[in-house]
Design goal:
The chain is built from ten helices and 15 strands. The protein has about 400 residues and is an alpha+beta fold. The chain has a six-stranded mixed beta sheet with strand order 13-14-12-11-9-15. The chain has a five-stranded antiparallel beta sheet with strand order 2-1-7-6-5, sandwiched between helices. The chain has a two-stranded antiparallel ribbon with strand order 3-4. Strand 13 and strand 14 (about 365-375) form a beta hairpin.
């Protein structure tokens, strides 16, 4: 009897435990379903928004009806999204294909300017489109490639320009060599052609030197030979290097301004930049005119060097481009004077490398003034003697 009672109690206990366990499992499943509901269509899955917020790429999430659920500020700023719609047809077509077959797709696109103030060539993007979850959501990632495309375009233009510039003197030398060989019995012709060959070789050497200088100053590496430099010495040396060309046109070179101004600089590069400005002034000035180089303190932190000429001036429409490599306002005149088209680009990069800048004022028919501004190294200064006392035999005080 006791055995039957114990067996009955054990059976009841087992039934109670089973019922309790089943109830606990059902309660647990219901709680889990309450905590993690399936993401309904038209909403982002949990955690996706947090992930998108830290992505460097422009990110856009599109639902099954092509509505934009989320878009980064960059995607809107670049013109990929307007309101709740993708406005780039090529990207919209890709999202529909990805939604249909679930395959990831990639391409490069160009988005045109959204306003007249945007760059005329628009922006380039590497676009990757992938499915996101199982509710028809699609993720669009766009990486801005504009700077890379722009750099590549500059590189191609530079190579093309260098090739073109090298072709002219090299071709001339080859042709002149053949001519000299054919005129071996005519000493006068040989002398004439030899002089022309010398001119072309100098032009070729100048181009190579300018390319080497430009390559040195347009990189990111700091200049290794920076030291305290007196602007007096820089001006004297630059004017001396230009004296021969100026004398050939009876152009007077004058110097003036304040003395004892010093900057921290690579002296050879600074002389090269100033010589390029004086060379340009001489090349584009009529005979028997004047080119003035002067230095003065702007304030306690900056000094400026001005190069003023009485030349032909620069049209207003061209001023914004004169510091571009190989750009010439008057190509025919520049080739006649032997210019490489790199002088002003070198000036721009040299001054930038020294923490300064270069600007220009010009009026057609009245001349130009180029101004280099550099950080001042120290303070004391006194007025410079009249231009007539300068080493360049000038007769009037420097013009400001």
């Amino acid at each position: 009897m006791e055995v039957e009672i114990v067996a009955s109690l054990a059976g009841l206990a087992g039934l109670a435990i089973g019922l309790t366990t089943g109830f606990a499992v059902r309660v647990s499943e219901r709680a889990q379903r309450t905590r993690v509901p399936a993401a309904p269509a038209g909403t982002l899955p949990p955690g996706v928004a947090s992930v998108l917020s830290v992505l460097r790429s422009s990110a856009v999430v599109v639902d099954g009806e092509d509505r934009v659920l989320r878009a980064s500020s960059a995607a809107r700023a670049y013109g990929l999204v307007s309101g709740d719609r993708l406005v780039v047809d090529e990207v919209l077509a890709m999202t529909r294909l990805v939604r249909r077959d679930g395959e990831i797709r990639e391409t490069e696109i160009q988005v045109g300017p959204m306003s007249v103030r945007s760059r005329a060539d628009g922006r380039w993007f590497a676009v990757r489109v992938a499915p996101l979850g199982s509710h028809g959501l699609v993720l669009v990632l766009a990486e801005d490639l504009t700077d890379m495309h722009r750099t590549e375009a500059i590189r191609r233009d530079f190579v093309a320009n260098v090739s073109h510039e090298l072709k002219t003197p090299v071709g001339a030398l080859s042709l002149l060599a053949e001519t000299v060989e054919g005129a071996a019995d005519d000493p006068e012709a040989v002398r004439r052609f030899a002089g022309r060959m010398q001119y072309e070789s100098v032009r070729l050497n100048n181009l190579v030197q300018d390319l080497m200088t430009l390559s040195r100053v347009q990189g990111q590496e700091p200049l290794p030979d920076m030291k305290a430099v007196a602007l007096d010495d820089v001006m004297v040396e630059a004017l001396e290097r230009c004296q021969f060309k100026a004398s050939a046109k009876e152009i007077e070179l004058a110097s003036g301004g304040e003395e004892d101004l010093r900057v921290r600089a690579d002296q050879e590069l600074l002389v090269t930049a100033l010589r390029n400005l004086v060379d340009n002034a001489v090349a584009y000035s009529p005979e028997r005119t004047r080119v003035v180089v002067s230095a003065r303190r702007c304030d306690d932190r900056q000094v400026e060097i001005n190069v003023t000429d009485q030349g032909i001036g620069i049209p207003d429409t061209e001023i914004g481009r004169i510091f571009e490599r190989f750009y010439r306002v008057d190509p025919a005149r520049s080739r006649q004077t032997g210019g490489t088209g790199l002088g002003l680009a070198i000036v721009k990069h040299v001054t930038g490398k020294h923490g300064g800048d270069v600007t220009v004022w010009s009026k057609e028919g009245h001349g130009s003034t180029f101004t280099i501004r550099l950080p001042l190294l120290d303070a004391p200064s006194r007025p410079r003697p009249a231009a007539a006392e300068s080493p360049h035999n000038t007769a009037r005080e420097a013009e400001q």
